[in-house]
Amino acid sequence: MIGERLLKAMNDQIKNELESYYLYLSMVAFFHSRNLDGMAHWMRCQAHEEQIHAMKLFDHVIDRSGKVELQNLAQLKTDWSSPLEAWQDAYQHEQLISGNINDLTHIAREEKDYTSEPLLAWFSNEQIEEEASTGKIAAEMEMVGDAKTGLLILDRELAARVFPAGSPLDPVAYSQAG
Ligand SMILES: [Fe+2]
Ligand SMILES: [Fe+2]
Predict the structure, then answer these.
(1) How far is the CA of 177 from the centre of ligand 2 (A)?
(2) Which domains occur in the chain, in start order?
(3) The pTM is what?
(4) Residue 53 CA: which ligand is closest?
(5) What is the pLDDT of residues 47-92, one digit of tens each?
(6) What is the pLDDT of residues 82-129, one digit of tens each?
(7) For residue 93, which of 42, 81, 137, 166 sits 20 to 30 Å off, Cα-Cα?
(8) Residues 131-138: contacts with CB within 8 Å, 24+ apart?
(9) Which ligand number lies closest to the CA of residue 90?
């Protein structure tokens, strides 16, 4: 069983992860509109990850006999003045999510809910990766500046993103996991 306070915080985080999913889907559409299909592909993978993040919390709440309460999603940004701005926003958004995970971990500790620690540690580690990857791309975009060739090279590079087989983020592996 999960306590009321942590349950509410987890339901809030399910919403935050689904908002991330929605935000990144908007970025997918934006990148396609700029003919940056590689960036759109990378962001499509990222959106997929966010959906899985939401489901990890969703399943945890159900397994702990809590009630999943899906909330309205906030209307987030749907357009950007440049690809650079979109990547900067993605990086900023991941920093916000890291703060959410920290708060969630803090609440779990205050509530002495040690059962949720492995899951929350997984999320903390994941946030290190999310900030590193989006921060790196945003920095590379800044380096590229107005150089179209650099933009195309980066776009081709981001087109290569794959989920490693058997990774917990691979949709097949996730559906088969314990
Ligand atoms: Fe996430
Ligand atoms: Fe990730």
Answers:
(1) 17
(2) 4-70+83-162 (1.20.1260.10)
(3) 0.92
(4) 1
(5) 999 999 999 999 999 999 999 999 999 999 999 999 999 999 999 9
(6) 999 999 999 999 999 999 999 999 999 999 999 999 999 999 999 999
(7) 166
(8) 131/91, 131/94, 131/95, 131/98, 134/87, 134/90, 134/91, 134/93, 134/94, 135/91, 135/94, 137/42, 137/87, 137/90, 137/91, 138/84, 138/87, 138/88, 138/90, 138/91
(9) 1
